[in-house]
From TrEMBL:
This is Flavoprotein WrbA. It holds the Pfam family FMN_red. Residues 3-194 form the Flavodoxin-like domain. One of its GO terms (cellular component) is membrane. Belongs to the WrbA family. It comes from Candidatus Brocadia fulgida. The gene is wrbA. Coiled coil: none annotated. PANTHER family: FLAVODOXIN-RELATED PROTEIN WRBA-RELATED (PTHR30546), FLAVOPROTEIN-LIKE PROTEIN YCP4-RELATED (PTHR30546:SF23). One of its GO terms (molecular function) is FMN binding. Transmembrane segments: none annotated.
Length: 204
């Protein structure tokens, strides 16, 4: 069973989260993660003028772009995004907006879906971003999967992470590393998404 982890990341923080979610998926027998990125919409001239953006682009240069076939083949999907004014990034939303053909055919219906997010600050909109992205996923017929409080780190995290999904606080310079609790929550989501995907697959 394949778990698609599709994301957008400007500076590389969401990409690092995607790899942690993939580690969690790999812990589940019979599940295989597939990491894919979405196309960049920021003009190259802007990226070239910023060392931090260029470093983020370089970090992810070998990650293939997602395709419609990737969405079709996946039995479960995790969506990763930075927050943009309390909402999903334009890049990831642009990709989701291109899933209309799969919506028409019901290709994504009954597939479990999760969301993970990174913000610059503690109250930068992690939960609002996840909640607003849930709407389009429900329209696609997907089954939302969060992080239950049996993951004890939700009680003690000093960074990101909530029942809605994993989170990371990158700092105003986007250089804060993912801390151990944030990483554990990412892996926990990957495991749970894979486990639920396998259960649903067996019932079909």
């Amino acid at each position: 069973m394949q778990v698609l982890i599709v994301y957008y990341s400007t500076y590389g923080n969401v990409y690092k989260m995607a790899k942690l979610v993939a580690e969690g998926v790999q812990e589940v027998k019979g599940a295989t993660p597939l990491i894919r990125r979405v196309p960049e919409l920021i003009p190259s001239s802007v990226i070239e003028s910023r060392e931090d953006m260029k470093a983020g682009r370089e970090m992810q240069k070998d990650v293939p772009l997602v395709t419609l076939d990737d969405f079709k083949a996946a039995s479960a999907i995790a969506f990763g995004t930075p927050t943009r004014f309390g909402n999903v990034s334009a890049q990831l939303k642009n990709q989701i907006d291109q899933l209309t053909s799969l919506w028409f055919t019901g290709e994504l219906e009954s597939k479990p879906a999760s969301i993970f997010v990174s913000t610059a600050s503690l109250h930068g909109g992690q939960e609002t971003t996840i909640l607003t992205l849930m709407g389009p996923l429900l329209h696609l017929g997907m089954i939302l999967v969060g992080v239950p409080y049996s993951v004890k780190e939700l009680f003690s995290t000093q960074g990101g992470g909530s029942p809605y999904g994993p989170g990371h606080i990158a700092g105003l310079d986007n250089k804060r590393e993912i801390d151990p609790q944030e990483a554990l929550i990412c892996r926990a989501l990957g495991r749970r998404l894979a486990e639920i995907g396998l259960r649903l697959q067996k019932k079909q």
